Amino acid sequence: MAKWVYSFGNGKAEGKTEMRNLLGGKGANLAEMSNLGLPVPPGFTVTTEVCTHYYANKREYPAELRAQVAAALGQIEKITGRKFGDPAKPLLVSVRSGARASMPGMMDTVLNLGLNDRTVEGLAAESGDPRFAYDSYRRFIQMYGDVVLEVDHHHFEELLEQAKSDRGVSLDTDMTAEDWKALVAAYKAMVERQLGRPFPQDPQEQLWGAVGAVFASWMNQRAITYRRLHQIPEEWGTAVNVQAMVFGNMGPDCATGVAFTRDPSTGENEFYGEFLINAQGEDVVAGIRTPQQLTILGKDRQKSKLPSMEEAMPETFAQLCDIRVKLERHYRDIQDIEFTVEKGKLYMLQTRNGKRTAAAALRIAVELAEEGLIDRKTAVGRIDPASLDQLLHPTLDPKAAKSQLTRGLPASPGAASGIVTFSADEAETLAGEGKAVILVRVETSPEDIHGMHAARGILTTRGGMTSHAAVVARGMGRACVAGAGEIRVDYAARTMTVKGNVIKAGEAITIDGGTGDVFKGEVPTVQPELSGHFATIMAWADSFRRMKVRTNAETPLDARTARRFGAEGIGLCRTEHMFFDPSRITAVREMIVADDAAQRAKALAKIQPFQRDDFAELFRIMDGLPVTIRLLDPPLHEFLPHSDADFAELSKATGKSLDELKARAEKLTEMNPMLGHRGCRLAVTYPEIYQMQARAIFEACAIVGKETGRKVEPEIMIPLVAMKRELDLMRDHIAKVADEVRAATGAEISYMLGTMIELPRAALRAGEIAETAEFFSFGTNDLTQTTFGLSRDDSAAFLGAYEAQKVMTRDPFVSMDIDGVGELVAIGTSRGRATRKNLKVGICGEHGGDPASIHFCERTGLDYVSCSPYRVPIARLAAAQAAIQAEPAKAAAKPTAKPSTERHNRVLISAGRRAAGARVSAGRNFAAPTARPGKKKPAAKPVAKKAPVKKAAPKKIVKKAAPKKPAPKKKASVKKPAKKSKKR
Ligand code: PEP
Ligand code: MG
Question: What predicted TM-score, i.e. pTM, was given to this entire model?
């Protein structure tokens, strides 16, 4: 017979902590506390499987449930010596929800169940306190009426207020037994009026009504939203816990309280909590009375005049202190507990791992490890990498009043207030005057960099998590809210409008880049403080990490910041950002509008010294660490002038007429620039550009090599390669420049040449590309864009609908699409390494800073991840956790050499990840037919099986792959304005 109900109490239980999936968190821990011999009121848990059954069977319970509940109730009766529905010695119970993951306040609870017109009298006689009995009864009717019978709670509140005003009292505590009795009668009459039937008097009917309500609350809107936000699967279901009531409101020797075994805000190893004498649980959280502190220390710190529990109930407090120690030793983590004292006797009602701030999490993990309760790997595993953001950026003062305007995407963490400006130039000017500004744009482009840098925060109304604004802001460590689509920006009027609020330039707003919230006015922020525990956890993490962590940086400031955060090199230097400096943009523009190679070379020669000095500075800062420099990537037209003043300046510099320049600009516009003339395609047509950049790099190597006496060996990276021949052409251009610099400077120049893998074709043909490339870096921003055929700049507008309708679980530009994009990464890695065994492989898309994607990179055997400077600590921690998680897989893989996918799924399942995580498909569908049977692979190698090394026929492939198509005819009448690309 299936078992649907698990009992606990009297020093034993049928369940235990490990049965959390079946019993929910609360049920499993009540069982565990019973097993530990702690004073837990007896009860039973109706399992989460009943919830699943209930929803799968048109809200019907399993056939055996009633009998099992009756038996479990009988056990409570036996232990307590009370009877459910007995007028003389009534058993009262609480009915509470309890899912696998804590969902605080999202589902329903009913207390004092079992009270009716007869049992209330029994309770009054037994307790000798009719006031208490009728107070409990009216609370029950109110709670049950609201939660189970769905009578709107304002009806109850109105009657309560009326009763108090009739009596001329303002506090519940001033109500007498007779007052409560009268209110009970009024409540019952009202319920009958509302429902057309009386309030249920039968305790069994009450019990099943409450159980049904708890299951129903799994599907209430609050719970559904909470699950969506916290990625809790609907199929988990909730359990129901039925437990004998104990009363903290039976007199001055009674109390109820909540506590944390350590301080959840700071992590300090001090017992921390609040309690109320003569009160029921909800009174502590409801804020009706001011709670008292648990300890004298807490009382002193809060400057409270009320006595602490340590003073008011010293014996019970001492018992609670013992339980505190016992629970921490047992669970090896901070516990969040609830307790009740009934007539001097302490009862434990709940324990669970305590939620804590990021700072507290660090301190607790380090101190628990130092106390020997956990090992260092566990300590590292306890920290949520994403929570480190809280520590590195300012956050909103939680106590501050806020008026929310709207919410966009949380594109770059941190909170910032400032006056609104709609222009990058103005942002720079205002910041120069010492003002804090928020730059508000429909979207940003590389031209806005100076304004973005000057601003405290950036707000855009369009664009996703890898839009220009998001990527650049993350790199700079600026707060950014992107794609706040409810805002209308009117550049001409210099206003932004949202939900009827018109904010003018110069007025203050606040953005929270960690949540996506936008607030009116200035909201105070609090500065982060990095504790010594942060450094300790980071050092421990580094000792377990296999993958290196590099940074995406191009400015000296970014590079220095990243080094401070522990970056082990630069994985992506986007050289185009260096072109926008006011001192060089005109020369860049001269290069773009040049009529021939000679003119272009002349303009490039002006830019080259700047580039050389930039690179030299980066080499100095990185001090021997690897530096990957990506040659120019964006479509050239991005650098074109926009304003009349820009055109005029360019006209002066080049001697070309304004008409000529505008015609040139028009010619350069593209319908689809992100798929257009960009990346290495630029240098297929204009090799001088990459030649200039290579020269600048090599000269910088020579300079810094001479300064330091140490050879600088850069990694030169070619973007947007689809075909080996493209890379071969670039290799030859660069090699020629290297020879020239060697000859000119006498320096020993050595470098690595590699490519980004950003196109599905490049991933598929990685085997032949690796014949030329010495390293790969997966540009998963573009790879996501090109795999899905989904614009990284425009998709934010509709991805929300995809998530809501479960087409996607997460924005693929934030967390890698493991099934699709991930499979291409795995294919590219394995095919590349099949050709070149020691091929260095990394990732430099935004996913390089996303913990879930980093886990995938570990499983796939990448050598490093690269991310924006402020995400370096997150990546270090996530990479360590990924390596720790991968350990059992390595051990398990050795003797059996199981197929890779199976092995990963096992790791994921054993690591307790959700079933969805087991969908890792990398390695499943490709190269399998050609894998050599019986050939043992090294344990930690990529998931993908090796493809056979095929000798490619490059010329043929190029011809086939790039047929010359006639240019599509453009109809003049329907010509759309060229779409401006937002290349980062
Ligand atoms: C990428 O495409 O993932 C990448 C890192 O390059 P960018 O974002 O500059 O296109
Ligand atoms: Mg790219």
Answer: 0.78
